[in-house]
Write a structure and sequence with these properties.
single chain, 604 residues, mainly alpha, 66% helix, 0% strand, elongated
Length: 604
């Protein structure tokens, strides 16, 4: 009866906590009835005491009034003692219950529990070796997250234990090597496998600043990578790719052994892995950006050629499911940007196939209203084209002319740079600082090119291009100035320019682009302003996005382009000024030129 009563009360914890009348009675009940149960001769009651303590832990701890946390500490000590209980079920329930206690304490108080971490981790690993429990895995993950600065000495032991449990679940490593594999989809408890791999990823994050430990981790995890970067690992590929992302980003360099996975990753991405495209992209990003020379110089197999072929195949992919094409188009554009930005001046031979892929995909969207229902697809294709202009404006423009699509591309880019929202007046496309910066660099490279070397149609359009460029630079400057202002919610975030309510799908695309552009799994998403499609925002703190263009002083680059324009095409420069029209815009433009050291237009 007592066991049943405890279960009934514990099941009502969430409801009782909401009512002050009942929640105020809980501490007294625990002192009178629950604490004595830890000394009960009956193991099932000791186990139930651990469980019910975890259910009510939030009522026992207060970050505001820490003098009232005595009961919390008493319960923690009793549950910790139960880890050495003679009955194994009590030990397991105690280990699972401690997770709630670690999750409840705040950062400031966690330092008081650091001394207990070594013995706790040792006990958790012993239990994990004796019994397969998702709850114990979750507790280990919680401890690693909370005490990440202190678990380095135990990291390899934790991962070794977890890996052994994973092999026990899916078929041991020796059987995997011999070819006697159990597909992950056929394992008895696939959820437990996901939990184990997620816990390993948490450990990798905790030791990311310890390269010597990461090297050891790589050796431990490599058999997992070789087996499950394949169709056999479809059900765990997200967790496996997350671990590879950590290894390839935080290690001092990408090892030769890890490079052997790259062709397999490409093959998986273009065949069975299209539904997980956004998870593959950060891995590809890491390989290219952190191993440019290996990527470009390896001939057996030819990694650059293989990557180009994979991108071409993926961009021609026809999806069987909703939204997959958009994810693939955005992901391919992201990879093309990584190559162009990290291999600047080294992949001239790729400009023609890249521009062909970009324009062909843009034409597909322009001819089918439903193809690019979300503007992020066209935006990222245009950003990639701008990246090519920055890489080499003459090469990109001549390539487009040879393809017969120069006018189309420049028209689409011009429309995107000038299209604004009716309600806010903000740009419809290029809402993030990163996308604005790339387009500015691309257009400034074009404007700063000797006019006589440009295609005739572009020569005639220089004033319009330069005026659009100037407005975009002012938009970026305004966005940077407003970024430091406190966020004020606006109903425009929820109402589109057409007056209709926004679709709920925007958040999913926010998640997608966070995955695509993030090299680290610890990116903190941050709501920006009212932009309807602001899911390329890179303004949040804690983001770990790196690119060679980050160090380019964009305003100085713009100023140099304007300097060249006036020196080589004074008439075009004055025409640019007249196209800005609005006196406020002209004043801001003149101020910007002054700040960048560019020439000042003569007074009108």
């Amino acid at each position: 009866k007592l066991d049943g009563a405890l279960y009934a009360v514990g099941s009502l914890a969430g409801i009782l906590a909401k009512h002050p009348r009942y929640s105020a009675m809980v501490p007294g009940i625990f002192e009178t009835y629950i604490l004595p149960l830890f000394s009960s001769p009956h193991g099932y009651l000791r186990a139930k005491a651990c469980w019910i303590s975890a259910e009510f832990v939030d009522l026992m701890y207060s970050s505001d009034n820490k003098s009232n946390n005595q009961l919390f500490l008493q319960l923690f000590e009793r549950i910790q003692a139960c880890l050495n209980d003679p009955d194994l079920p009590v030990q397991v329930d105690a280990a699972i219950a401690l997770r709630a206690f670690f999750d409840a304490i705040d950062e400031e108080d966690s330092v008081h529990f650091v001394q207990a971490v070594p013995s706790l981790l040792q006990k958790f690993l012993e239990l994990a070796n004796n019994i397969e429990s998702e709850g114990i895995m979750a507790t280990i993950e919680s401890v690693v997250e909370r005490f990440s600065d202190h678990i380095a000495p135990y990291a390899c032991g934790i991962v070794t234990t977890l890996i052994q449990q994973f092999w026990n679940l899916v078929g041991d490593e020796d059987r995997a090597v011999s070819g006697e594999e159990t597909p992950f989809a056929d394992v008895a408890d696939p959820l437990a496998g996901h939990t184990i791999l997620a816990t390993i990823a948490t450990v990798l994050d905790a030791v990311s600043k310890s390269p010597e430990i990461l090297a050891e981790m790589e050796n431990i995890l490599f058999p997992i990578f070789t087996r499950f970067v394949s169709e056999d690992g479809m059900d765990v590929i997200e967790e496996v790719l997350e671990m590879i992302t950590y290894i390839t980003y935080y290690s001092p360099h990408i090892s030769e052994k890890m490079w052997t996975l790259y062709p397999r990753i490409l093959m998986s991405m273009e065949t069975w892995g299209t539904d997980f495209f956004s998870d593959f992209v950060p891995v590809i990003d890491n390989y290219i950006s952190r191993g440019v020379q290996v990527f470009l110089q390896t001939r057996d197999p030819p990694l650059l050629t293989m990557t180009n072929m994979t991108l071409e195949t993926c961009l021609k992919h026809e999806s069987d499911g909703f939204g997959t094409e958009e994810e693939i188009y955005i992901g391919c554009a992201a990879i093309l940007q990584v190559i162009l930005e990290n291999c600047n001046g080294l992949v001239d031979q790729c400009i023609q196939p890249y521009m062909s892929l970009i324009v062909t995909t843009m034409l597909k969207g322009a001819q089918d209203d439903e193809q690019f229902d979300d503007p992020s697809v066209m935006e990222q294709l245009l950003v990639t084209g701008a990246d090519a202009l920055y890489y080499n404006p003459l090469l990109a423009l001549n390539t487009l002319q040879q393809l017969g699509h120069l006018a189309f591309f420049m028209h689409m880019l011009g429309d995107a740079v000038t299209k604004r929202k009716k309600r806010s007046g903000k740009l419809y496309y290029f809402s993030s600082k990163r996308s604005k910066k790339i387009v500015i660099l691309g257009l400034a490279s074009l404007v700063g090119t000797q006019p006589s070397s440009l295609p005739p149609g572009i020569q005639q359009s220089i004033p319009q291009i330069a005026a659009a460029l100037a407005r975009l630079v002012l938009d970026l400057k305004s966005q940077e100035a407003s970024a430091s202002q406190p966020f004020e919610p606006s109903e425009e975030r929820y109402i589109s320019d057409s007056g209709d309510e926004e679709d709920d799908d925007d958040d999913s695309y926010a998640d997608l682009m966070t995955k695509l552009r993030a090299r680290s799994a610890n990116i903190e998403e941050e709501d920006d302003d009212e932009d309807d499609f602001d899911f390329f925002s890179d303004d949040g703190e804690g983001q770990d996005i790196k690119s060679p263009i980050d160090d380019i002083p964009v305003y100085a680059y713009f100023g140099n382009a304007m300097n060249t324009l006036q020196a080589t095409n004074a008439e075009g420069f004055m025409a640019t000024l007249s196209l800005l029209q609005d006196s406020d815009i002209v004043a801001q433009f003149q101020q910007l030129l002054s700040e960048t050291g560019a020439p000042q237009p003569p007074p009108s």
